[in-house]
Amino acid sequence: MSDHFTIESDGVRVVKLEKPFEGHHGMISEIRLRPPTYKDFMELGDPTVLVVVANGMVPQDDLVTIGKYISRLGGGDTARLDTVGTLRDAEALTKAVKSFFTQASASN
Q1: Is 1 part of a structural domain of the chain?
Q2: Per the domain annotation, does 16 fall within a domain?
Q3: Which DSSP helix (H) or strand (E) runs through 32?
Q4: Residue span of the structural domain in which 87 resides
């Protein structure tokens, strides 16, 4: 559990939106991100890239890839986020996506 999102027993991440918005079927107050599949990972890749610096490499979030995961894992609920979402919502969704990968790495 996080102060930005919750994790359900099936692995779904639920982000409560700071600013709910009108969707096709009513108000959207939360985004549910399903766990990524093998196909998702093979098509979208790792949401972290390594940036070469003078003394080695530093991990860096790939926000374009994270955005693709948010769109894919959240389904139709994410369609209007680009026009109505807040920075806090973007950060919470980013952390939720990254948590799938940190959890998988920790279990390996």
Answers
A1: no
A2: yes
A3: strand 26-33
A4: 6-107
